[in-house]
């Protein structure tokens, strides 16, 4: 039945203009055109094949990743792709690789923390991939607590060099992506020691491997840290371990961006909130061994952190929408029970229980998309303000990015797993795409700020705001709602004490604050003009589902704090059921609007035409175990059992 669209009847039910929704999802007509073109280019090129990824051994997988990364680079050069198109191409190739860290962390770190000369020297090499960089911060014994890093960088004024050293086993760099086997250079973070005095953690550009034969340079012990969770997935990445044995680097390889601003006008309370988050310093060491501290660049480091986190929020909507697309299409294909007079069974998407698990995730995918867009705007706004010496919105921007990074990645990881369960048994097959998607996504809850640690920072920001209520300083922006909460006005400094004991509750408050943020940004999106027949109405339904689902899920909190009555709770529940019925006919079109190719989805259950069963059947026969009818090992292990010869068998 090649060429038949098994989901056509579902697509015909939709009540809105799917093409217009595709543009809303992409962000703009331009973004849609670029994304559509590049995704099709990748999907149609056999060089980017990925359907066999989960059956490859680690070594085969890694070599294949190297080939794909090189092939992607060749494609980018041959087709003269712009930076935007190249980034999209890497996105649709959809394989974790050293290039992610090279482009996403190594280059931004040099841009953010390097001097003019350092940028002029290193960036052209990095842009042409004549050097490949990684970001080596985390150590075996130290992750979230960056101030605890043990690697040292001791200045030697005799030779005008730093000596980089790993004094203990726990100081071994551990986790950096690309470090294990590929990177030629690292931004390594180490405790700076000048004239015997410790000056905090700073970044250094360190060459790791020879540019001639790729062998580690003297004093470096470097390798891969081993297999990670799942098949395929993040095992394509060479997360690495590195030990330095008194490695010498020139002084000008310390990242020393100097102050560009003449006046510092960071408010003192902002410093207080940000202090625990700004752990990396950017200062200068002169050839005479003088250490010059500068506050301003520390805020620049902070800006880079905001950038990475806002991209993680954008990625969350991609990963969740992908899982939701698979689960929604398969739920429309799969039928169980309910056959009347020998007719077909019921599509599982028509069960209210399936809808109540699936549709809030569909709504979340859209909600995260829009809050991600807003965060991108916020980042641009903060960057502009920083350039004008205005640090006033930094604490709020930090709370938003840290909190939303935590909220969206946790919900996405949980959501992918829920989508796997929504697909029943077949969701557990690697060919569903969901196990690998989960395995590759779930570390997002840990890297770039462990999620609970981030929520604690948001909680601290909220407590600070609460303690200032009643003073002349009025909360604005995303915390403006606090002025309307009358009983909070009575709270005074008492909230500052006992933070640790109450931290579990405070983390819940931080989550609630972030949920409010997502809801309010979704509502703001709806206040804009949105073209296309029925598009806005669909988004309104999804927005209401997102908000009411949260209210339903946290009903206990709302009831116990007297924010709603039991009657309100029951009404919200009724409304939610009615909204699910409104989404139902549009469900397939709403996931089509993501405009994902079958290649990118990487899932038989989620394929566009819904022709699931023949494809599953065909894929099974391609498994390496099915290469022979009688398995390898029959003669040694199965036959002796069957023939009662186990006692004499050679095992
Ligand atoms: C796939 C992957 C890729 C990575 N890539 C890189 C990379 O390229 N470069 C790099 O430098 N690093 C990288 N990392 C490391 C990553 O940044 C760290 O793992 C992350 O910062 C979390 O730190 P941790 O492992 O020390 O966790 P820990 O902080 O040890 O967390 C363990 C537990 O302790 C809790 N906890 C910690 N502190 C507190 C506190 N103050 N209060 C309450 N609870 C607390 C946490 O919530 C968590 O439950 C990567 C990690 C992964 C998984």
From TrEMBL:
Ranges of residues in domain Acyl-coenzyme A oxidase N-terminal: 17-132
Main subcellular localisation: other
GO molecular function per UniProt: acyl-CoA oxidase activity; FAD binding; fatty acid binding
Gene Ontology cellular component terms for the protein in this record: peroxisome
Compartment(s) of residence: Peroxisome
Domain of life, per lineage: Eukaryota
Residue ranges constituting the Acyl-CoA oxidase C-terminal domain according to the UniProt record: 486-643
Cofactor section: FAD
Active site: 448
Gene Ontology BP, a term: lipid homeostasis
Pfam family, any one: ACOX_C_alpha1
UniProt-listed Gene3D superfamilies: Acyl-CoA dehydrogenase/oxidase, N-terminal domain, Butyryl-CoA Dehydrogenase, subunit A, domain 2, Butyryl-CoA Dehydrogenase, subunit A, domain 3
Residues that coordinate or bind FAD: 138, 177
Keywords recorded for this protein, A-Z: FAD, Fatty acid metabolism, Flavoprotein, Lipid metabolism, Oxidoreductase, Peroxisome
Domain named Acyl-CoA oxidase C-alpha1: residues: 302-463
Stated family: Belongs to the acyl-CoA oxidase family.
PANTHER family, A to Z: ELECTRON TRANSPORT OXIDOREDUCTASE, PEROXISOMAL ACYL-COENZYME A OXIDASE 1
Protein name (Swiss-Prot/TrEMBL): Acyl-coenzyme A oxidase
